[in-house]
Amino acid sequence: MKKIIAVIAVLVPLALTGCASKSGSAGVGALGGAAAGGGAYEYRLNQEMQRIESDLKAEKIDQKEYDIRKDQIERLSIFR
Q1: CA distance 44 to 49
Q2: Binning pLDDT at 50, 70 and 90, where does residue 39 land?
Q3: Which among 23, 29, 27, 2 has a CA at the least distance from the CA of 13?
Q4: How far is the C-alpha of 57 from the C-alpha of 68, rounded, in Å?
Q5: Engineering a disulfide at 16: which of 27, 50, 63, 67 sits with its beta carbon 3.0 to 4.6 angstroms away?
Q6: For residue 34, is pLDDT > 90?
Q7: Helix 26-57 crosses helix 2-18 at what angle (to 10 degrees)?
């Protein structure tokens, strides 16, 4: 989590200077694109979490496998 925040803290200023325009609005587009990408990433992780929960209820996987997969998803998530 701390690594992701550090990388974002370094990359956002670089992206904003690289996308700078005289009106200053190009940086907003870059941030909007990054936010949309992050939202899609989190949405996909949420779908995967729901899938493993349904697999556990349907007894396709056991509790141990569920816990392993849940831990992997939580480590990949930006917000958890």
Answers
A1: 9
A2: confident
A3: 27
A4: 16
A5: 27
A6: no
A7: 150
Is the pLDDT reported for residue 74 higher than 60? yes
Q: How many CA atoms lie within 13 A of 80 on its CB side?
A: 14
Dihedral (Cα; 22, 27, 29, 32), 10-degree rounding: -160
Q: Which two structure tokens, joined as six digits, stand for 72?
A: 């992997």
Question: Quick check: 70 and 52 in contact, CB under 8 A?
Answer: yes
- List CB contacts of 56: < 8 A, sequence separation 6 or more: 62, 63, 66
Q: What is the dihedral of CA 67, 77, 47, 11, to 10 degrees?
A: -160
Q: Which helix (H) or strand (E) holds 42?
A: helix 26-57
pTM of structure? 0.52
Distance CA 34, CA 1 (A): 17
